[in-house]
Design goal:
- This protein is an alpha/beta fold and 331 residues long.
- The chain has 2 domains: 219 residues, Spore Coat Polysaccharide Biosynthesis Protein SpsA, Chain A; 91 residues, UDP N-Acetylglucosamine Acyltransferase, domain 1, CATH 2.160.10.
- It is built from 6 helices and 28 strands.
- Strands 14, 16, 17, 19, 20, 22, 24, 26 and 27 form a 9-stranded parallel β-sheet that branches. Strands 5-4-1-6-11-8-12 form a 7-stranded mixed β-sheet. Strands 15-18-21-23-25-28 form a 6-stranded parallel β-sheet, with no helix packed on it.
């Protein structure tokens, strides 16, 4: 099995951070968003991945070579942002068997191992999460056997509350790419883009059975506020930690925090949902619901709901802040 990961987007909702860092490499819970997914793929035994890159693609290549040398990557460039169908189409020359397709705007709690025991009647799996605000999403309509019958983008009527989360397994790759060709041959959707979900609809219309499987959790990383919400979830579950090498002096530590190696905390208060990355220094400051990048320095400040990039310096600031790596802020 191979995986396809489209990464060509510019991450405009996460600017200014994405001026320097590709959205999949923004950090949450102490490591890049994409690394959670790569670790899951390795655990499943997948080591061949096709990355569809574009904006800051060279940064992705450098990261993969340094952090995941055991993965065998292929890179294709999406020159025109024409949608998810166009992105996956570019991976076709490298896909010759079953394939996982993953979009890395979100993290998820899903059982990917079910792909190894899926009965032969199924052509694939599409994972979904039940939501109340179904009008915001593409939703999946199923039959009594949990087989997909339709995908409807942002329905006005409550035909389904199963939101499409951007995680797919396809066994019949040849039919998938026929469906993508069909989608690309039709007029684009309202946003001017071509949707991968239209290819899945084509497969179903041709008689394929695609199983709709639930996920336990689905955590958005596409906006600053949701990145902080996902950070809190990770700290509450698997990523909360205070390094024994951190220097903590006259500082109050709240719950749901992550304090990494070499961090210095002096005369400060850390509230709920705070990640302080390696080598950062926090002095005479109060911090709540923040991600502070490696090597950053925060002095005489009160920060809340903030994202501070690596090696940034913040002095005398009170409020909400979102600044990328190497920034300097003086209040």
């Amino acid at each position: 099995m191979k995986a396809v990961i489209p990464l060509a987007g510019k991450g405009t909702r996460l600017r200014p951070h994405t001026y320097l860092t590709p959205k999949p490499l923004l950090r949450v819970g102490g490591k890049p968003v994409m690394s959670y997914i790569l670790d899951d793929l390795q655990e499943l035994g997948i080591h061949e991945i096709v990355f569809v890159i574009g904006y800051l693609g060279d940064v992705i290549k450098e990261y993969m070579a340094k952090e995941y040398p055991e993965i065998r990557p292929e890179y294709v460039v999406q020159e025109v942002q024409d949608g998810t169908a166009g992105a996956v189409k570019l991976a076709e020359p490298f896909v010759d068997d079953e394939v996982l397709i993953l979009f890395v705007d979100t993290l998820f709690d899903a059982d990917l191992s079910m792909t190894k025991s899926l009965s032969p009647e199924w052509s694939g799996v599409i994972w979904a999460k039940e939501v109340e605000d179904y009008q915001r999403f593409g939703v999946i309509v199923t039959d009594a056997d949990s087989a997909m019958t339709r995908i409807v983008e942002k329905p006005k009527d409550p035909i389904s509350k199963l939101a499409n989360i951007g995680l797919y397994y396809i066994r019949d790759h040849e039919l998938l790419f026929r469906g993508i060709d069909q989608a690309l041959g039709n007029p684009p959707g309202p946003s001017g883009e071509f949707y991968l979900t239209d290819a899945f609809q084509f497969m179903v219309d041709q008689g394929s059975k695609i199983l709709t499987a639930p996920v336990e959790g689905w955590y958005d990383c596409g906006k600053p506020e949701t990145l902080l919400e996902t950070n809190e979830h990770l700290l509450r579950t698997t990523r909360g930690w205070v390094s024994p090498t951190a220097l903590v002096d006259s500082t109050i530590l709240g719950d749901t925090i992550r304090v990494e190696d070499g961090v210095v905390l002096e005369g400060s208060v850390l509230g709920t949902n705070v990640t302080i990355e390696e080598g950062a220094r926090i002095v005479n400051s109060s911090i709540r619901s923040c991600i502070i990048g490696p090597g950053a320095v925060i002095e005489n400040s009160v920060l809340r709901n903030s994202l501070v990039g690596g090696h940034a310096t913040v002095r005398g600031f009170d409020g909400k802040l979102s600044v990328p790596d190497h920034s300097v802020v003086k209040g």
